[in-house]
Design a protein that fits this description.
By secondary structure, the chain is α+β, with helices and mostly antiparallel strands. It has two domains: 276 residues, Zn peptidases (Aminopeptidase, 3-Layer(aba) Sandwich), CATH 3.40.630.10; 123 residues, 2-Layer Sandwich (Alpha-Beta Plaits), CATH 3.30.70. It is 40% helix and 23% strand. The protein contains 13 helices and 20 strands. The longest helix is centred in the last third of the chain and has 25 residues.
Length: 442
């Protein structure tokens, strides 16, 4: 399929807003071509018709005010990168009060809330991440503009934590039981240099054990299903030299010059490669720094870069182009200097999110498609960089779904959330959870 300029502009705009999950033109076409197996449509319909489930679905609507109150409370607890502990402690307290069997915090700071199943032969995780992109000191007070909540992190991903709390509460109040064990997780480290450390820990020997299915809630809306992982590599590249006075040391190697050349060469080769036929691959220089004063030759110059693709081969090729550009820039600057020691370069991997996917035909994704359809929506299959990247890469059935409502300006100080039929997102999450974990017969 050829993506036209209009669709490409929309995709770029979504990325600039910092969306963690995207559904592009190609994904929309795919969603129309992947049918929902009738057996999953029948399964969701049967589950939704069960008396306890009907009661729970209504209670989700009845608990709207409480869900919003929890949402605001958690939003106003700062959760900067690597400093999620304060929010985690409150979330643990709240999910325990909602009616969970046991709650604990693991070695990565994740909050795990265990709900025992009737047989326990399977284990399903329903997860939302607790961290935001905003540094310490950011004002996270929720401000109201009519019905709209405005605050950093109010949509990504704090709303999803309140969704988990409501699901736990309605399952407790209605005494709904599942065959499988269910673990509700508030995860750390989804954003930025957190590098998915929370979910990586869940799937490590330090985790809770075998995980059979993984469902992440991240992003607004009710129709999107991320079933493919956008892999990424992130580096901090630092050119180093002796540094010195801008006049007295003139002629020594300048790390800024080397950095500029590296950026230029990667821009040339990266754009040429991105334009070649194949799976979409992107790259960018996100942050640069270094130097001490206007009249000094810097002793260090650094940049942080990001590259992404669903295809590991394309991602690795873009990675190789970065390193070739760095090597060329370093050699040129060292050849041009008139005196002093050679510059050196340090390349540090600061993020590695694996690519992977689940076919849209697997039961988990089919059940979500059927749940969306049952509640009047149209499923849209997509690709994203989310906590589901880890189970995707390990071959575990996984997906990332919407939290309901509408949201925008993610990762900005002007982030907002509107509770426009937000209960539908919670109802969908409950239906797919009960379907995947098995609604235990009374």
């Amino acid at each position: 399929m050829v993506i036209n300029k209009k669709n490409a502009a929309k995709a770029l705009f979504a990325l600039l807003l910092g969306c963690t999950a995207t559904v592009n033109a190609q994904d929309s076409e795919q969603s129309a071509s992947v049918p929902i197996d009738k057996k999953y449509t029948a399964e969701i319909k049967k589950i939704a018709a069960a008396p306890l489930v009907k009661k729970a679905m209504q209670q989700i609507v009845d608990l709207e005010k409480e869900t919003m109150s929890n949402h605001v409370l958690l939003t106003e607890i700062p959760s900067p990168p690597y400093k999620e502990a304060k929010r985690a402690a409150k979330f643990a307290e709240m999910i325990k009060a909602a009616g969970i069997d046991s709650v604990w915090t693991d070695t990565a700071g994740n909050v795990l809330a265990f709900r025992k199943g009737r047989t326990g032969k399977k284990r399903v995780i329903l997860e939302a991440h607790m961290d935001t992109v905003f540094p310490e000191g950011t004002d996270v007070t929720v401000k109201y503009r009519g019905d709209t909540l405005c605050a950093p992190g109010v949509g990504d991903d704090t709303r999803s934590l309140s969704v988990l709390l409501t699901i736990v509460k309605v399952m407790k109040q209605t005494n709904i039981q599942t065959d499988a064990d269910v673990i509700f997780v508030g995860a750390t480290g989804e954003e930025g240099q957190g590098d998915l450390r929370g979910v990586k820990n869940l799937f490590s020997p330090a985790g809770p054990g075998k995980i059979d299915s993984f469902i992440a809630i991240d992003g607004s809306g009710t129709e999107g299903i991320v079933h493919r992982a956008l892999g990424s590599h992130r580096y901090r590249v630092t050119f180093k030299g002796p540094g010195g006075h801008s006049s007295g040391a003139f002629g020594i190697g300048n790390p800024h010059n080397a950095l500029g050349r590296a950026m230029h060469y990667w821009d040339e080769s990266g754009n040429a490669y991105a334009a070649t036929p194949g799976t979409r691959v992107t790259f960018s220089v996100g942050v640069i720094g270094g130097g001490t004063s206007v009249n000094s030759i810097p002793f260090a110059s650094w940049m942080e870069v990001d590259m992404r693709s669903e295809n590991p081969e394309r991602l690795n090729a873009m990675d190789a182009l970065l390193k070739a550009a760095i090597s060329k820039a370093l050699a040129e600057e060292n050849a041009m200097k008139k005196m002093g020691k050679d510059l050196t370069v340090d390349i540090k991997l600061i993020g590695d999110r694996p690519a992977g996917n689940n076919p849209a035909t697997i039961p988990l994704v089919q059940r979500m498609m059927a749940s969306i359809s049952y509640l009047g929506g149209t499923p849209k299959l997509g690709v994203g960089s989310t906590d589901s990247n880890i189970p995707f890469a390990k071959g575990v059935p996984a997906m990332t779904i919407g939290q309901g409502g509408k949201a925008g300006n993610a990762h900005s100080l002007n982030e907002w959330f509107l509770n426009d039929k937000g209960y539908i997102g919670i109802q969908q999450s409950l239906l797919v959870l009960l379907s995947e974990a098995g609604l235990a017969a009374k």
